């Protein structure tokens, strides 16, 4: 790991466009002391002052009671699919495998839905995978794992839901800081994220 002084020297050598790119796309994952170096560079170079505000909102994470309060607020929204408030919302991991000869299509989404809609979506995906996933070598192996994993994951609904909801809050720190956490804002983000493809290595096993 680089020392703070080494990082400071590296940042001095970066171009303005590199500094702007770090501020806009990478600041969320920086250590606190590195964030300070980044802000110093933005100020010294007289770059757009809005970059500093952006960095501050991206790095001001939700912790403790504030984080739990936001998660509960999301849980008590109306279901984005059926528009009803039957109980509370849960995070569901929805996996789907379809394969044809040499082609294999794998879809993974994280959807925040009421328990009824979430279970229906998950069961529908398992059925599609079971009937359409076997028809290639890669698909055969993926289908076997996905069907077993997703069927077993029904037993770990609360555990997986909490991980998904926490990830939503952590990934969207800047969005919430800039846009607020009113129900309308939360609904808009959840609906959009429900359609987002999740990278394969970001899924949650049942263990």
Describe the structure.
The chain starts with a helix and ends in a 13-residue tail after the last helix. The protein is 60% helix and 12% strand. It is mainly alpha-helical. Mean pLDDT is 90; it is low at 201-207. The protein has two domains: 4-59, no CATH class; 65-202, no CATH class. The protein has a two-stranded antiparallel sheet with strand order 1-2. The protein contains ten helices and two strands; from the N terminus they run αααααββααααα. A hairpin with a 2-residue loop joins strand 1 and strand 2.
Q: What keywords describe this structure?
A:
single chain; 207 residues; mainly alpha; two-stranded antiparallel ribbon; 60% helix; disordered C terminus
Give a brief outline of the structure.
This protein has 207 residues and is mainly α.
Choose one word for the global shape: globular
Evaluate the radius of gyration.
21 Å
Q: Helix fraction?
A: 55-70%
The total count of helices amounts to: 10
Strand order of the largest sheet: 1-2
Calculate the terminal CA-CA distance, rounded to whole Å: 31 Å
What proportion strand?
5-15%
Number of domains: 2
**Which sequence of SSEs, written as H and E, runs from N to C?**
HHHHHEEHHHHH
Q: Which regions contain 5 or more consecutive residues with pLDDT less than 50?
A: 201-207
Based on secondary structure, the structural category is mainly alpha
Mean pLDDT over the residues: 90
Largest sheet: 2 strands, antiparallel
Record field, number of beta strands: 2
List the helices and strands and how they pair.
Elements (H helix, E strand, L loop, with lengths): L3 H10 L2 H11 L5 H13 L5 H10 L4 H12 L13 E12 L2 E12 H18 L4 H17 L3 H15 L1 H7 L3 H12 L13
Antiparallel strand pairs: 1-2
Helix pairs in contact: 1-3, 2-3, 3-4, 4-9, 6-7
């Amino acid at each position: 790991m680089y020392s703070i002084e080494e990082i400071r020297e590296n940042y001095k050598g970066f171009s303005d466009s590199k500094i702007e790119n770090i501020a806009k796309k990478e600041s969320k994952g920086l250590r606190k002391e590195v964030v300070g170096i980044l802000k110093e560079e933005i100020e010294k170079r007289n770059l757009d002052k809005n970059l500093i505000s952006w960095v501050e909102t991206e790095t001001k994470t939700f912790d403790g009671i504030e984080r739990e309060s936001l998660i509960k607020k999301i849980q008590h929204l109306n279901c984005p699919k059926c528009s009803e408030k039957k109980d509370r919302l849960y995070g569901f991991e929805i996996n789907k495998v379809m394969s044809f000869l040499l082609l294999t299509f794998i879809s993974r989404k994280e959807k925040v839905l009421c328990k009824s809609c979430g279970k229906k979506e998950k069961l529908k995906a398992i059925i599609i995978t079971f009937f359409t996933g076997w028809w290639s070598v890669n698909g055969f192996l993926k289908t076997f794992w996905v069907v077993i994993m997703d069927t077993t994951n029904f037993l770990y609904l609360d555990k997986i839901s909490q991980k998904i909801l926490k990830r939503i809050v952590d990934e969207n720190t800047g969005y919430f800081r800039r846009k607020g956490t009113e129900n309308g804002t939360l609904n808009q983000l959840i609906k959009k994220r429900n359609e987002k493809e999740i990278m394969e290595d970001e899924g949650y096993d049942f263990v």
